[in-house]
Amino acid sequence: MTHGFRRLGLLFATLGLSLSCAVAPAQASRQYQKVRFSLNPAQIIYLPLFLAVDRGYFRAEGLDVQVMPYKGSANSQMPLLARGDVDISVVIAGPAMFNQFSEGFNIKLISTLTEPKQGYRDGAVLVVRKDLWDAGAIRKLQDLKGRKVDGAVEGNPVDFLLRSALHSVDLKKSDVTLSYKPRTPGDTPEILRQKVVDVAGVSEPTATLCSAGGR
Q1: Where are the domains of the chain?
Q2: For residues 89 and 80, what is the distance between their CA atoms, to the nearest angstrom?
Q3: C-alpha separations of 42 from 73, 91, 205 in Å
Q4: 67-97 burial, b if ≥16 CB within 10 A, otherwise e?
Q5: Most confident of the following: 95-109, 129-143, 145-159
Q6: Whole-angstrom Cα distance, residue 164 to residue 150?
Q7: pTM of this prediction?
C-alpha cells in the first residue's frame, strides 16, 4: 500500500509539473490589449484608477493600460478622444462632451467615478480667502454679492457648483465678478494668496492644500 501511495504521489507530481510547464509559456505569450487612458494626476478622485494600474488589476484582465497624464481640465481631452489619440478618458458633463456627442462622435459613457452623498465631501467645493473668513466678511452665500469669484474652468463641475450656489440665493452673474483664471489646479492657492479673487471653486486635493496653507 505504501508503495502504491508513492507511485500515486509521483504521478500527481509529474502531472503538476507538466501542467505548470504548459501554463508558463501560455502566460508568457499572453497577448494584452493596449489601452491608452488619459488621467489628470492632480485630481484625487482618480486615485483608484492609478492604484488599479499599479497593482496590476487591469493586466489580470488582459489589458495593457498606458496612462497618459495631462494637466488642466478634462475638457481638453475631448478632441483627443474624438480623434482617437486616446482610447479612454475621464470626462466631465460639460459643453465639450455634449457638443461631441451631438455631432455624432462615437463616444460611450461607461462609468461614474463619484456620487454625492449626505455628509460626504464631493469632488468640488468653494473656498473663501482666509482673511475675509476671519474678518467675518464672507460667511454665507449671500455674502458673495459684489465679490470676485472664480469658477476654475467654464462649464466644468466646479463652475456648475459656483453658479448653482449663486442661483440658490437669487444672485445673478452680474452680482459678482466671475473669472476663470487658473490654468492648472495648483494656480488656485496662488491667486487666493495674492488676493486676486475672494472665493474660488476647486476640487480635491486643491481644497485641502488651500486650507492647510492658510489661504
Answers
A1: 33-102, 124-212
A2: 9
A3: 10, 15, 7
A4: eeebebbbbebbeebbeeebebbbbbebebb
A5: 129-143
A6: 13
A7: 0.61
191-207 tens-digit pLDDT: 998 999 999 998 877 77
Angle (CA) 82 87 88, round 5°: 95
Question: What cell numbers appear for 171 in the block?
Answer: 444672485
Q: Tell me the C-alpha distance between 211 and 129, whole Å.
A: 9
CATH number for the domain running over 124-212: 3.40.190.10
Q: What is the mean pLDDT of residues 129-133?
A: 93
d(CA 40, CA 45): 10
CA distances from 80 to 7, 75, 92, 152, 201 (A): 63, 10, 14, 21, 26
> Is 15 a residue whose pLDDT tops 60?
no
* Cα 44–Cα 75–Cα 171 angle in degrees, nearest 5: 85
188 is written with which cell numbers?
488656485
Chain centre distance of CA 153: 15
